[in-house]
Amino acid sequence: MDNQESYIARTSGLKAKDYIGYAMGDAAGCLVFSLVTNLLQKFYTDVLYLSPLFIMFMFIAARVWDAVNDPIMGRICDTVKPAASGRYRRWFRIIAVPLALSSILMFIKWPCLDGEVNTVGTCIYATVTYLLFGMCYTVLQIPYGSLASVVTTDAGERNRLSVFRSIGATVGSIPVLLIASFAYAKRVDEAGNYVIGENGRIITDMQAAPVLTGVIIMSVCSMIMLFLTYRLNKERVVAKPAPREKGAAMKAVKRLVSNRAFMAVSLAAMLLLAGQMFTQSFYLYLFNDYFNANWMNMASQACTYAPMLVLMFLMPKMARKIGKKEVCAVGTLLASLSNLVLFFLRGQDPSSLIYLFLIVCAVSGFGLTTLVMQLWAMIADAIDDIEVRTGSRDDGTAYSFFNFFRKLGQVIAAICVNGALLGMNYKYEKGAVQTLENLKVMYDMATIIPAVLFGLISLILFFLFPLSRKKVEELQVRKEEVLRESYENHTIEIG
User: Fold this and answer.
1) Cβ-contact 140, 33 below 8 angstroms
2) In the chain, where are the structural domains located?
3) What residues contact 249, with CB distance under 8 A and at least 6 apart?
4) Quick check: 210 and 179 in contact, CB under 8 A?
5) How far apart are CA 206 and CA 78, in angstroms?
6) What's the whole-number mean pLDDT along residues 98-120?
């Protein structure tokens, strides 16, 4: 190795193809994951007629299983001998078809399954298919989360990878909005007349057939994109398998838990996903039942993601000059305050509030996008910090642990969504009509819960996450020394 050229320089130098290929991986994952975050909750209550209480417990039980499932996948990634294609890439090709099939199965309404007629059978089917999807998604997400660490070792390129990952996630999340906005039909009674709710507007119901059609298209696209992700990415760093010594996994977990940066960014990621999933799921109820404007699903997401078109050019420079921690802490505070503003707008006529609601959503989205675009660079920094401090690096275990925190975020979202539905006495039975009092409580829950979640993230970043801009710069220097030593000791290679 040329002493005049740093190890980091030898394992960097990404081109446009690398960034696009990396972004495509999260686009593929989000094509199917967005089905869960946006559609599945309402599909369960309004199409399968499942109780919010059952859904909440099912989601919690699934996360308990993840406590076993995720670490197993993480250790497999760390200990299995790398293939010719690398340690992580191969999993994209392995899981592409099973992930697509499991996504479709969740949204099939079989003639014999109806929550009112065959409650037990419907509950069992929903549980099995949801667990199957979760396991397949884990097989994708843990290797993909670990991929950035072997694609490049340069901090600046990892920042750009994080931005491109966010762009990929946005691209993958957009198609579901078409289903969420247009998979509805106006309710009619036996005489063929439209059914009017207590708010004086025509009631609309989610339809199973257009939902399933959209799910099939998105799942097939996800499968194709995963095959492309496999071809377009390259693992430049090849680490030897972690030793399979007794207690190695527990030692790796202890290193993660004792690292302040890792735990802080994991907690932030947990609350971020909780807030995102809550709004995406609960807004379907809010826009359909409170505003009676399903087109708002697409409009609100456009307001949420539009800031990315601006920030994708600014964030790398802002992260470098101001710091990832500093920018994201302020951004999440802005998101929290925006939702508080929406809460205090309660009581206004829904028809006159629609456009103001969307404008404030855009402000919230601008703030939240800062963390969305830098989260994966921040977790990479935290893993680097562990390696510099301890001399050990277990990316698969780290990302499985990190992924488990994100799964806990799903639990929080499930509790918040279904708790809010139970608290407002949401009527999910076939032909049900919501009362005006129910709708008022629905609006309150839709605004105050995100305000609290995003506010907590800001506090964590301000006071718990230690990697400020200056400390990240110092970390980069120390990381070069560790990587050079590892290369000279033959524990890592250049792929």
Assistant:
1) no
2) 7-494
3) 71, 75, 397
4) yes
5) 43
6) 87
